[in-house]
Amino acid sequence: MPRLVIVSNRVSVPDAAGKGTAGGLAVALREAFQAYEGLWFGWSGKVAAHPTSQPRMVDKGDVQYALMDLTSLDRQEYYNGFANRALWPTMHYRVGLSDFSRTDYAGYLRVNRTFATALAKLICPSDLVWVHDYHLIPLAAELRPLGLTNLIGYFHHIPWPAPEVFGTLPGSTDLLRAIMDFNLVGVQTERDADNLRRALMQELGAVAEKVDVLDVGGKGTCVKSFPIGIDASDFQEVAARPRSNRIVSQTIVGLGSRKLIIGVDRLDYSKGIPQRMEAYERFLVNNPDQRGHVTYLQIAPTSRSEVPEYDTLSRVVNETLGRINGSLGEPGWVPIQYVTSTYPRSLLAALYRLARVALVTPMRDGMNLVAKEYVAAQDPLDPGVLILSKFAGAAQQLTGALIVNPNDKFEVAEAIREALRMGHEERVARWRTMIGPLRDRDVSWWAAAFLKELAAQ
Ligand code: ADQ
Predict the structure, then answer these.
(1) Is 92 designated active site?
(2) Is the pTM for the entire model greater than 0.85?
(3) Whose CA is nearest to atom 16 of ligand 1?
(4) pLDDT in tens, 116-174
(5) How far is the CA of 149 from the centre of ligand 1 (A)?
(6) Interatomic CA distance for residues 217 and 227, integer angstroms
């Protein structure tokens, strides 16, 4: 069995109790290490005064962690700058928000080179290397000139946009060239795979050897979709445990006979939180008999607060929330409850299970794990209804959801009404179509499918 080397922007080192962070990627990657001995390389999350060329090594059982610190200039240019202010908006079709700066781009390439130089010293010839996400697109192109001939795979967790959209970003052709240094490129959906293949053909003149294998001047790469999953059985089990948590008990008491609608998202403009609040407002305006009978709980932990667009979003969300609660609320009833805390998985699972409806309405999303977690957390005998954006990768799989266009407030408002009125039989039937595929294509399936394909290249 070859050793597995995972490279991601952030590394999540388990704490003394063996627990790591709760984020989707961290959980997914820890799963990959169940089957392999390995090394996990990336940014420690720390900022140091001087650039580091040697990672700090931490040993935890079968997995070794190699942690690089960044300087504050690196963090500003590579992470907050090119990755989060130029690539992230472009990949999410928000060309107007994309702020390209040549200095940030140079910083992005510099950090990728520093990572490659440090990583190359740790890699053995038989290692399988698996690189994650848009922060590290040039990594293989930096590793190859250092003599690495290993199989190197890349998984892109966010959408790959249409070529016309990606092509608006300066540097996009160089990034496409860099993609060709990976042996396997995994994306979330067939739509993303098609977009990337078309960009490679149009911009680099790539020739399709087979449907998913492209060649540019003798260099071949395979582009395929591997929809990421969750640990569905574990989520089901955690959600079914008796609820002893204070927050859950308080939520139950606070709800009384009201139905709960839930939204759980990082505070990010791709998630469509203000638009969702306005759709809920439209629902309350159109259905005055429902006022006082529903509560919408939006959980939205702050993210990327150093990026100005996220500050603006936070302000817009607070204003929208205040306006709706002020104009439609009544003494004893607040239409929208809003919290920004991060919660443990068990608490999130219990809240999902309490909710009759989940509103998962991103404007664009690679996959969206919250949609999958909500379905897995439901009581099989009395499941809730998922309202899901057609622009989330998850919509390709969760076809039992009420699929909506998040840009259309009236359509989302109508879906909320339909979800709240949906009969028991239909709720169970819809849920059953989703839970089977969720369990079959869970996170272990995802990691194993990608690594099997990589090893076969
Ligand atoms: P994200 O954009 O972060 O992930 P998502 O897939 O929904 O989006 O994953 C978020 C994770 O964070 C979920 O596991 C959720 O439970 C957790 N989370 C959210 N709010 C939380 C809170 N308040 N407390 C604790 N945990 C919370 C990116 C892409 C997605 C893709 C994933 C994985 O943008 O499209 O699905 O990577 O590939």
Answers:
(1) no
(2) yes
(3) 370
(4) 999 999 999 999 999 999 999 999 999 999 999 999 999 999 999 999 999 999 999 99
(5) 33
(6) 30
